[in-house]
Amino acid sequence: PGESGLVQLIVMNSQFNDFSSAISTGTGIQDLQLIGNLFIVQPNTVSLNLQNTEATTIIGNTFEPQGVTNNNYGIVFQSYNYGASIVMGNSFYAMSNGIVLTASAKNVNVQSNAYYNTTNKVSNSCSTCIVGGGSM
Q: Does the CA dihedral 108-109-115-117 come out positive or negative?
């Protein structure tokens, strides 16, 4: 916490069983890439809790609950996102909440994700974020 200048975190082909957040950026990370991972999300947790990230790429990940779906979140963009970020080609299976773009998030493009039996697919309170283009 409180560090600056963190650059280029890449997480690929990994599995997470979240009892809290699998990945939580308490400080800004530039060029964050999350590709091809499996996130098993516990009740009352946020799998990806992203704050102050820059140029984030989230592609081809799977989010599914561990047991009962109960107030769990796949991806939450919490605060200002420098540059442009993209969330695409991800699968959300039986989640309470797929993707949340808070009012303080910026410049996130959410496209072409799959949602099966997910209660709230995308919640967009962000004025500069784009949702669409094949998201179902």
A: positive
Q: 92-123 burial, b for 16+ CB within 10 Å, e for fewer?
A: bbbbbbbbbbbeebbbbebeebbbeebeebbe
29 neighbors 58 (Cβ within 8 angstroms):
no
Q: What is the pTM of this model?
A: 0.90
The two beta strands, 108-111 and 85-88, are: parallel
**Cα 89 to Cα 46: distance, rounded to the nearest angstrom:** 19
- List pLDDT tens digits, range 74-104: 999 988 766 789 999 999 999 999 999 999 9
